[in-house]
Amino acid sequence: MLVRRMGYFSPSLSKTSSFFSLLRKTPYPFHLHPIQFFKPIRPKSPHAYPFSMNHKTHLCTSAALQEPTKTLSNRSAKKARRDAPESVLRHQLDQCSKRGDLQEALRLYEEAKLNKISLNVHHYNVLLYLCSAADTKEFGIEKGFQIFRQMGVNGVAPNEATFTSAARLAVAKQDPEMAFDLVKKMKSFGVPPKLRSYGPALFGFCDKGMADKAYEVDVHMRESGVVAEEAELSALLKVSSLSKRADKVYEMMHRLRASVRQVSEETAGVIEDWFKSEFAAEVGLQNWDVRKVKEGIVKGGGGWHGQGWLGKGNWTVVRAEMDSSGVCRSCGEKLVCIDIDPKETENFANSLAKLACEREVKANFVQFQDWLQKHGPFDAVVDGANVGLITQRNFNFSQLRSVVNKLRQMSESKKLPLVILHKSRTTGGPAQHPNNKKLLESWKKAGALYATPHGSNDDW
């Protein structure tokens, strides 16, 4: 899909079109037990053993009977657990869940109360789930909250599934505020919320057009380390569009761009509705700083400048296709490559360095970091071992040299790429050939070769 203003192509949306195109040995555990040969011990006298052959046979028979007795005992214990009232009830409720049979589940629940059967969190969760999914909403809601209250009276600690089902009951009751309150209470029980825990409150607020409350849920999600997926972002985008929150529309579109890349038909329809709206035509700056836009595109990984909507006027919305080289057949613009932004890059680098220091000999990786500070930065990195062994049995320096030289030609700075080779590759075998020695020496002098020390993994 391509969206653009009449009269000019908006640099802010060259990226928007991209989220409609996807730029997007197990050993067998044989444990071999050696056969042991024992030399028979012959007694020095016939009286060396204080028991007769008959007695010995009796002892062997007794030992042989111990294992079957133990097996029978285990089987009896398993059967006892399986036949326990709590286990029978669990199995029956699970069958009700498979069939979606709320009435039978409630009958079993009432019967269990009369028989004073102790219910655990799983029993309650199945009942709450069936109530939240009931065809007759009012009946399911009423019974569901009764069971939820009884669970608290009986002192059964809830888990994430409990809160999620209760939140669904709240939304079925048209009360997303209650659903959100339930999610907030999860932390006090030491229960980390999941994405599905937030769904009832988020979708409930979005369906009611309560944009600010939906944004509040979104913030709480991110603070809890929960990442929204397409369904959540699409709902936030729709409520933002309907409430004419242009800044939030812009934010949600680029969050979709960053995390989803290729959207569903339903989400594509939400995006089209925004650009076809009269309000979208009125949104945007008429004067902007071109320098800042260019800087934003570079910093944002290409295509996204982060400066908001640029220009005013009607948008033209067209369903288009890209050719094999990524050029739009409608407007002729080429899709940009999506790159991670500077913050993500920094986080990734720091995490990788931390992990490498934990897994490697710390001094080795710190030494590499110091070396990199002195000789970097580099436009490209070459895994020397992988390149030198492509389609080869023996390490091929000629092949590696060819790739390094090609990368140097491609580089705007014309600087050699960083070549990573394990130390053994730089001293032994093919490295002893005069031409290869000369090549390695030239890379060393240029500060483009790093030889990882013995005991270190060059992949880091």
UniProtKB/TrEMBL annotation:
Keywords, comma-separated and alphabetical: Hydrolase, Magnesium, Metal-binding, Mitochondrion, Nuclease, Repeat, Transit peptide, tRNA processing, Zinc
Any matching Pfam family: PPR_long
Location of the PRORP domain: 322-460
Positions of the UniProt region annotated as Disordered: 68-87
Main localization of the protein described in the UniProt heading: mitochondrion
The keyword Zinc appears for this protein: yes
EC nos: 3.1.26.5
Ranges where the PROP1-like PPR domain occurs: 78-282
Mapped PPR repeat ranges: 159-193
Essential cofactor(s): Mg(2+)
Subcellular location field: Mitochondrion
Family in the record: Belongs to the PPR family. P subfamily.
Listed name of the protein: ribonuclease P
Record organism: Datura stramonium
